[in-house]
Specification:
The chain is mainly β. The chain has helices at residues 2-18, 55-60, 66-70, 139-142, 406-410, and strands spanning 33-34, 41-42, 49-53, 76-80, 88-92, 100-104, 107-108, 128-135, 149-155, 162-170, 174-184, 188-199, 208-219, 226-238, 252-264, 266-267, 271-287, 297-315, 318-333, 339-354, 359-370, 374-388, 391-402, 412-413, 416-417, 425-437, 441-460, 467-490, 493-508, 515-516, 523-536, 539-550, 555-567, 570-577, 596-604. The chain starts with a helix and ends with a strand.
Length: 606
């Protein structure tokens, strides 16, 4: 089976040299500037493994939420519980959900309580312009939590006056409604989005009610523009088997995620300075028995207030990037107690250009002070060489780590004890890669290795004992990742095929304990593909195929599909998920829904 996948992959490389596609009108990924780094560089000039999910790809993805969209990216492991991304965990290249950083317009959305809340901050796809995915060690760029990589959601800007309304309905009594208003005024622009998603659930106690409010404004845009972003998301859902034991069928959870951020930018011929201030809040209420909260209930409220300044300076010696990020975290919890933490991170990097600008070398370091974990440093280096205009080889290595979450440190229940004496997790990562890019065809390959130590696991010596968090696990992870996108035409219509493959091998060092809670269950083999086609005017189709094989030996094939009919101001959609009724689970033995449908109608008023 894998052999046939590689034959398909290789054939697309050959196809690029057979067909001439000069007339293609597609969004050129090589012209996209990666904005989540201090030294802003176009896609093709970066010496890291970076993927960009553009607005074109989002529209062709057959995905209705960010969790489903990211699942189509090789190297990304989204472990969902249920439909519509209501609860999902984010993993990159075999790391844990605590080791991946999510950003919105460059604002770090990490949660000190637990990485389980990372995807609570996911925005509706209606307001996403693109998604920038940085794989590999990213701590020297973003600080702690970017242990295995980082994902930056870039939101849309209003470029014209529009109003759109969308309603979707389908299996399990799903009902999704949304209104998005964009207004481009003389000295300001605004996007306002309101949406609500509800469902009775695909099995007992998996109902949900999700509400989203989003506003993005650019003020004083004719002078010193100020960008404001605000978002509020509330999720209420039955959590049948989501946590604890799969037999705990009456669990229930409510979360609220809020963000307010302001930023501006000062630019000159040599300088680019961008200050930013923000406040992020997450509230999580968990009930073990939905019908009787008094049996067991947790309530956690986390506030993060931050300010940062990022800058770059261009000189004859190259580009220097530097910045400082300060934040204060407050936690109030009936289980974890009242906690607070002050963090300061200083960043410095410089890009050297040598050999007639064919060779770039970017060393850098981030130094962070934590009020409860003192000083830590993350050095790293990126090296790239441009063989030809459209072909580049690169390598990078870096030291990375994450400090324990408050759940690791202080969580207690009848079966589990946290450990206030935990140390940070550490890793050294290396990567070698090559990428080729044209408007019609892009391809990349990366080999990576990560040696991690002091990883946190929950262990015990005797069966009746409580699980206790311990820095006990050492892990070596290595693998290879392949990605390609091929754009071509049939008659006058654009078509697109994308393929991705990721292989991981985990070498788990021997644990000198009798019982371990966390088994490593990465995606050993992961294959993703998407075929977006249009054969007649106004009608387009999308087919998505995903194959996954975990280190446990479990494997599954899932097919999704969508069709879009555009009629002037109307857009009619039909999306089918798991169309062949595959029986599988992605985490905690929670069964994923079998074949289900979602029908949508969108009307653009302007």
């Amino acid at each position: 089976m894998l052999k046939s996948k590689f034959l398909i992959f290789a054939s697309l490389f050959v196809a690029n040299f057979i067909y001439s596609q000069d007339s293609l009108k597609v969004q050129k990924i090589d012209e996209i500037v990666i904005t989540s780094t201090r030294i802003h560089l176009p896609f093709e000039k970066n010496s890291r493994t970076i993927s960009v999910i553009t607005s074109d790809i989002i529209k062709k993805s057959a995905a209705t939420n960010l969790a489903d969209l990211l699942q189509q990216e090789a190297g990304i492991d989204i472990r969902r519980r249920g439909t519509s991304g209501m609860q999902a965990d984010l993993y990159i290249r075999g790391g844990s959900f605590d080791q991946t950083l999510l950003l919105i317009d460059g604002i770090k959305m990490d949660d000190a309580q637990t990485g389980h809340h990372t995807m609570n901050a996911a925005l509706p796809v209606d307001v996403i312009e693109r998604v920038e995915i940085i794989k590999g060690p990213a701590a020297r760029v973003f600080g702690q939590n970017a242990f295995t990589g980082a994902i930056n959601i870039v939101t849309k800007k209003a470029v014209k006056n529009t109003i759109s309304a969308n309603v979707e309905t389908g299996s399990y009594n799903q009902l999704n409604t949304a209104v998005t208003v964009a207004s481009n005024l003389e000295n300001s622009s605004h996007i306002v989005h309101v949406s609500r998603l509800t469902s009775d659930g695909y099995r007992y106690n998996t109902d949900y009610d999700n509400t989203n409010y989003f506003i993005k404004s650019i003020l004083n845009k004719n002078a010193r523009a100020i960008e404001m972003i605000t978002n509020f998301s509330e999720r209420k859902f039955g959590a049948n088997g989501f946590y604890a034991s799969p037999t705990a069928i009456n669990q229930y959870e409510e979360t609220q995620n809020s963000l307010v951020g302001f930023s501006t930018e000062f630019t000159s011929e040599k300088w680019d300075v961008k200050p930013r201030g923000y406040w992020k809040r997450n509230q999580d209420e968990y009930v073990f028995v939905r019908q009787d909260p008094s049996i067991y209930r947790n309530l956690h409220i986390t506030d993060k207030i931050g300010a940062e300044v990022n800058a770059s300076y261009t000189s004859s010696a190259g580009i220097t990037g530097f910045g400082i990020d300060m934040s204060k975290i407050y936690l109030r919890s009936n289980n974890l107690g009242d906690r607070n933490r002050f963090m300061t991170t200083m960043f410095l990097e410089h890009q050297f250009k040598l050999a007639d600008n064919l060779l770039d070398i970017t060393p850098g370091v981030a130094v962070t002070y934590f009020s409860d974990f003192k000083f830590h440093a993350f050095p790293g280096i990126d090296i790239g060489y441009r063989i030809m205009d459209n072909l580049k080889v690169y390598g990078n290595m870096g030291y990375t780590y994450r400090i324990p979450t408050y759940t690791d440190l202080y969580y207690n229940d009848p079966t589990t004890n946290g450990n206030a004496n935990l140390n940070p997790e550490e890793a050294v990562s290396e990567e070698l890669g090559i990428k080729y890019f044209t408007p019609a065809f892009t391809a990349s390959m990366a080999l990576f290795n990560r040696d991690a130590s002091k990883l946190i696991d929950y262990v015990k010596d005797n069966a009746p004992d409580k699980w206790e968090a311990t820095n006990i696990r050492n892990l070596n992870t290595k693998g290879v990742e392949l990605n390609t996108v091929y754009n071509f035409k049939i008659t006058d219509f654009n078509q697109s095929i994308s393929l991705g493959y990721n292989f991981l091998e985990d070498d788990v060092k021997t644990l000198n304990v009798n019982f371990s809670r966390y088994a490593i269950n990465s995606l050993k083999h992961q294959f993703t593909s998407r075929f977006s086609t249009q054969l007649v005017k106004n009608l387009s189709q999308n087919i998505v195929y995903k194959y996954a094989e975990r280190t446990s030996g479990d494997s599954y094939n899932v097919w999704d599909a969508s069709i879009v009919l555009s009629l002037k101001q109307f857009e009619i959609t039909a999306t089918a998920s798991n169309i062949f009724n595959t029986e599988y689970s992605e985490t905690n033995l929670v069964p994923m829904p079998k074949g289900n449908m979602l029908f949508g109608l969108r009307y653009n008023f302007i």
